[in-house]
Specification:
The protein is α+β, with helices and mostly antiparallel strands and 181 residues long. It folds into 2 domains: 113 residues, NusG, N-terminal domain (Alpha-Beta Plaits); 47 residues, SH3 type barrels (Roll). The protein is 19% helix and 36% strand. The protein is built from 4 helices and 15 strands. Strands 1, 2, 5, 6 and 9 form a 5-stranded antiparallel beta sheet that branches. A 5-stranded antiparallel beta sheet has the order 14-13-12-11-15, with no helix packed on it. It is elongated and about 65 Å long. It starts with a helix and ends in a 10-residue tail after the last strand.
Length: 181
């Protein structure tokens, strides 16, 4: 294999990592899905067992994957709505290993990875996602499983105050595979 063949191998059809513009992963992946011979994979996460459906979040915020021929489609992909750039090394688009893509599809067959909540426990730091205390953070002081409620210690007007609220109003920590999600 000569040097020119080696360089052309780097420009072969394959999976590539793309950087989306801020919070534009869905727009970019939808736009690229309309192109012929371009396959898109945007793995997303969803919290398991929430009463209210939570929005899907990208598994890799700001990044997603596309399979295409860079010789034929690089310009269309790069300038697609929502795409910031194709990840490159020394000016050449970086291949994503087919094995990595297989593994990602195995853990999220429909593109959605369910993230289980960590077991609720006393002492856990939580954030309130709805209700009177929305946006506030506190510490769980007591679990009330029979009523699906928790007691949370908040600092209100400079004083520690214990409040009992429904579990569905609280965002518990999750076991996100890449850290806290």
């Amino acid at each position: 294999m000569n040097i020119q063949d080696e360089e052309m191998k780097d420009w072969a059809i394959g999976w590539y990592c793309l950087r989306a513009k801020p919070r534009q992963e869905m727009v970019a992946s939808s736009t690229l899905s309309t192109l012929n011979n371009v396959e898109v994979f945007l793995p997303r996460t969803q919290r398991a067992k929430k009463v209210k459906p939570q929005p899907l979040k990208p598994l890799f915020p700001g990044y997603f994957f596309a399979r295409f021929d860079p010789i034929e489609h690089l310009r269309n992909v790069h300038y697609a709505r929502g795409v910031a750039y194709v990840v490159r090394r020394k000016g050449i688009p970086v291949h994503v290993s087919p094995q990595v893509m297989i593994e990602l599809r195995l853990i999220s067959p429909d593109g959605i990875l369910e993230i289980p909540d960590e077991p609720h426990r006393v002492g856990a730091k939580i954030k309130v996602i709805s209700g009177l205390f929305k946006g506030d953070e506190g510490v769980v002081t007591k679990l009330v499983p029979a009523r699906e409620r928790v007691r949370v210690l908040f600092e209100i007007l400079g004083r520690p105050t214990e409040v009992e609220i429904g579990e569905q109003e609280v965002d518990f920590p999750s076991a996100h595979p890449i850290g806290n999600g």
